[in-house]
Design goal:
655 residues; mainly alpha; Amino acid/polyamine transporter I; 2 domains; 27 helices; AA/rel_permease1
């Protein structure tokens, strides 16, 4: 009996592991969607710009210049922009591969597995929800400051103050209403809301251009001189500290990939919009930082209202009103970007069965997931009404960095994974087993495609295998399924990177030379993993956009994101653990049992091209399993009418 119990337990655990690691394939008509594909490249670019250029350019620039980096704030924004661009390029490649709502969630589902996809999706929900609430609070606070505290004083006189640690000083009714109004704007329809976002973003960019022009017009180069502290008064460490803070000014480009399912031509629009928006936003932040520190000495910058105070110092008081208009427009577009992306993520998770089914309902008239928008709007409004976002806003960083890390790692994994037979981009069948080879020859699957060269066919057939010049690695990395060694190396590389960053973060300053031994070991493991990945054959699949210098560029993105995650404080990790506990309960009690990938043989045999609302994939290795089930059925046709016991056998038993 104990042995039987162990077998049953092992079977249950292996079934759970299989469910957690099942992946969503890419085949069928990925452009088929119940949503409205109406967004152009221009619309998507301004969506990304508007989501990134919000309160940060009016508040964050002054804070970093005054307390962290001085005039070298421009370098901080440059470093932060480079770090964000590495992740943005990975998002752009996935946007061409998988033109679906869900952003990093959908990408992780395809490349790594269901469990990690749910983790990412759950964190994206938190990121967008708190992001929208924080911008609504900033919008309300900015208007309250313009009116000399009239709004806050009136609210306190009616409701009194809230004396709780996590709650705000008073309920911010205006922030609540701002979230509701933004949700109503988005409920009209994606094209109408895109027009509104475009107008506000263009107005905001006009104001930023005016600030840059005035900054250089009133520039005084002596503000960077030694008598005022020089260009780098806080040293290079200050530049790095500023870069860590400036990194979050670029959070929001993932709203571009979240709009993939509503783009007219996602394979073209997503990479172009991603690169254009990153360049525009990066240049904007850098030029504003230079203009601000050239107008006034960094030591006199007012962190609360940096640009209006600097313009007042150079006697350009009239421009302060333009800055106020730009700030309101910028915060509004950031709010619209967060509330635009949040319902799409909920929709994607619900369509896959990981969240409740009603969340995937799409309104026939507006062609948007209206239930999700209502939930997203009221949830963000409730958070903005009651909570102290100075403490909660740190939640955003850890979830965002985790998503960036997994997407960057997933680019490496997919680049070295064989093209499945369902993907006819190259028309080269991938034969995973002798059974599949037999079935391919029996069914007459073509081995070549008219448009494929012999070299491309050879590369396609050897994807994920060790290249000929590195055959000496076969004893270490060979003998496994194509791409499996690369996937293992990516996991080991990520863990080793996290261990290296954590060791250096907690290493005592006066540690002896032996304390550096783990650094050497971990560095060796990281380099070895990258070399083994490099030694494998990449997929020759043609895409409108591919991340260059794989695996080096995505690996650099993973390392930078992990380093930033390690430097988050312990309280942030504790809050993250609490949020993830709720998410894991939801997944194991509901999501894992209702996943669309667990619908049995019927789901396995059905192809995604049938035109259903959520028909872009069913189960990884579907065709292989379907063929085996089909062969089993064909093999039994001649035997299904035979009696269980023949007449001869019955006569022998009677004798």
């Amino acid at each position: 009996m104990p042995g039987a119990r162990h077998k049953i337990l092992g079977h249950v655990l292996s079934g759970f592991c299989h469910k957690m690691n099942r992946r969503k394939p890419i085949y069928g008509d990925v452009l088929d969607t119940p949503l409205n594909r109406c967004l152009t490249t221009f619309d998507i670019t301004l969506l990304g710009v508007g989501h990134m250029v919000g309160a940060g350019i009016y508040v964050l620039t002054g804070t970093v210049a005054r307390h962290m980096a001085g005039p070298a704030t421009a370098l901080s924004f440059l470093l932060a922009g480079i770090t964000s661009t590495l992740a943005a390029l990975c998002y752009a490649e996935f946007g061409t591969r998988i033109p679906r709502a869900g952003s990093a969630y959908a990408y992780t589902y395809v490349s790594i597995g269901e469990f990690w996809a749910f983790i990412i999706g759950w964190n994206i929900v938190l990121e967008y929800m708190i992001g929208a609430a924080s911008v609504a609070r900033a919008w309300s606070g900015y208007l309250d400051a313009i009116l000399d505290g009239a709004i806050s004083n009136a609210t306190i006189s009616v409701t009194g103050e809230l004396h709780e640690t996590l709650l705000s000083r008073y309920p911010d009714v205006l922030a609540f209403l701002i979230c509701i109004v933004a949700s109503l704007i988005l409920a009209v329809g994606v094209k109408t809301s895109a027009y509104i976002n475009n107008g506000l973003t263009i107005l905001n960019l006009t104001v930023i251009s005016l600030v840059i022009f005035l900054g250089f017009y009133y520039a005084d180069i002596t503000n960077w001189s030694e008598k005022n502290g020089g260009f780098m008064p806080y040293g290079f460490s200050g530049v790095l500290a500023g870069a860590a803070t400036c990194f979050y000014a670029f959070v929001g480009f993932d709203s571009i990939s979240a709009s993939s399912e509503e783009a007219k031509d996602p394979s073209r629009s997503i990479p172009i919009a991603t690169i254009l928006s990153m360049v525009m936003v990066g240049l904007g932040y850098i030029l504003v930082a230079i203009a601000l520190t050239l107008m006034v000495p960094y030591s006199t910058i007012n962190p609360e209202a940096a640009l209006p105070a600097a313009l007042g110092a150079v006697h350009a008081d009239w421009a302060k009103y333009a800055v106020a208009v730009g700030a309101v427009c910028g915060m509004t577009t950031t709010l619209l970007g967060s509330l635009f992306s949040l319902p799409r993520c909920l929709y994607a998770m619900s369509a896959d069965g990981l969240l409740f089914g009603f969340l995937s309902d799409v309104n026939n008239k507006s062609q948007i997931p209206i239930s999700n928008l209502i939930i997203a709007g009221f949830s963000s409004a409730f958070i903005a009404l009651l909570f102290d976002l100075e403490k909660l806003v740190e939640f955003m960083s850890i979830g965002t960095l985790l998503a960036y890390t997994i997407v960057s790692a997933a680019v490496i994994i997919l680049r070295y994974r064989p093209i499945p037979p369902e993907d006819k981009s190259f028309g080269v069948p991938q034969l995973d087993s002798p059974i599949d080879r037999e079935d391919s020859s029996a069914t007459g699957t073509p081995a070549t495609d008219g448009g494929s060269s012999s070299s491309e066919m050879f590369e396609a057939l050897t994807v994920g295998r060790v290249r000929a010049q590195y055959a000496w690695l076969e004893p270490l990395a060979g003998g496994r399924a194509p791409g499996a060694a690369v996937t293992s190396c990516v996991y080991v590389f990520t863990v080793a990177t996290a261990a290296l960053c954590a060791h250096n973060h907690f290493l005592a300053p006066n540690a002896g030379p032996w304390a550096l031994l783990p650094d050497f070991v971990l560095t060796f493991i990281i380099i070895a993993c990258l070399f083994i990945i490099w030694a494998h054959q990449q997929s020759p699949l043609r895409l409108p956009f591919r991340v260059p210098w794989v695996p080096l560029l995505p690996a650099a993105s993973v390392m930078l994101n992990v380093e930033l995650m390690v430097n988050l404080n312990a309280l942030t990790w504790a809050r993250f653990t609490i949020w993830m506990t709720f998410g894991l309960l939801l997944y194991f009690l509901y999501g894992i049992h209702h996943s669309k990938l667990g619908e049995g043989v019927t789901g396995l045999l059905s192809r995604s091209g049938s035109g259903g609302a959520h028909s872009w994939g069913a189960v990884d290795k579907t065709s292989s399993l379907a063929r085996r089930v089909g062969r089993l059925g064909r093999g039994c046709k001649s035997d299904d009418r035979k009696p269980i016991i023949s007449d001869d056998e019955l006569n022998r038993r009677e004798q």
